[in-house]
Write a structure and sequence with these properties.
Strand order of the largest sheet: 3-2-1-4-5-7-6
Mean pLDDT: 93
Distance between the termini: 49 Å
Strand content: 15-25%
Number of strands: 7
Low-confidence stretches: none
CATH class of one domain: Alpha Beta
Structural class: alpha/beta
Largest sheet: 7 strands, mixed
Shape: globular
Order of helices and strands: HHHEHEHEHEHEHEEH
Length: 242
């Protein structure tokens, strides 16, 4: 175990009012090592510096706790998870969560399965597919209490990808950085069409990396019309209601 890593992750989680056990620190460290190893042969992340990974990936992922209670037994899907963010850090911190990791690239799904096995996580699965296709599948559609995404896309597009997965009364939380007021305004019609309403926006700062972050929480009030999500590629090219 690297002492710097342990100090950084312990202090970083304290900053968002989360305490770690020694076992969780070990799991995060093994996850970090595996990510760096696999990153040499495939594109998982451009962020590889240990301190940056701790704060920009691990702490940022778990910052979801500022928006919604994930400490109880809850089903969560992470859309466009990539290297496993935020789904795997949330699963490490809250083992009772039932997590689905969704990614469109099969080799990333292989990496995620390897991480899950090596660090001993249960009740978590990695699914290969595009959100536009999987969101139409009855096995996944409107089955989750929470949908999260750190994917880089505008909020209208992300809402079309994500709200179809959310149960009535559940929430979609989008991780954002920088100014988001215009994006929120542009997404308002899309969110309404898809059955949601913006419930709250939590703005905060990760002091260690001088980063402004926002968590946009959208409540699912009505069923998402069956015609959404539209076919693959359309939500990104033609954001709904914009």
């Amino acid at each position: 175990m690297d002492n710097h890593f342990k100090l950084w992750i312990t202090e970083g989680m304290k900053e968002i009012s989360v305490d770690l056990s020694d076992n969780q620190v070990e799991q995060f460290f093994l996850y970090y090592k595996m990510m760096i190893e696999w990153n040499q042969v495939m594109n998982l992340t451009a962020i590889t510096d240990m301190r940056d990974v701790v704060f920009k990936h691990f702490v940022d992922s778990v910052s979801l706790v500022k928006s919604i209670d994930v400490s109880r037994e809850t089903s969560l899907i992470d859309v466009g998870t990539g290297a496993g963010f935020p789904g795997i850090p949330l699963k490490i911190m809250y083992p009772e969560l039932e997590v689905t990791l969704l990614d469109s690239l099969n080799k990333r799904v292989r990496f995620l399965n390897e991480v899950v096995e090596k660090i001993g996580l249960k009740k978590i699965s990695a699914v290969h597919g595009r959100a536009e296709d999987v969101g139409r599948n009855p096995k996944y559609r409107e089955k989750y209490d929470i949908c999260v995404s750190r994917a880089v896309a505008n909020l209208a597009t992300l809402s079309e990808y994500c709200l179809p997965f959310v149960k009535m009364g559940g929430s979609f939380v989008s991780y954002k950085s920088g100014a988001i007021e215009d994006e929120l305004t542009q997404a308002k019609n899309a969110v309404k069409i898809l059955g949601g309403i913006v419930e709250n926006v939590v703005n905060f700062r990760i002091e260690e990396i001088d980063a402004e972050r926002s968590l946009v929480r959208i409540l699912k009030r009505d069923r998402t019309p069956l015609k959404y999500p539209r076919k693959a590629g359309v939500p990104g090219k033609e954001p709904l209601g914009v």
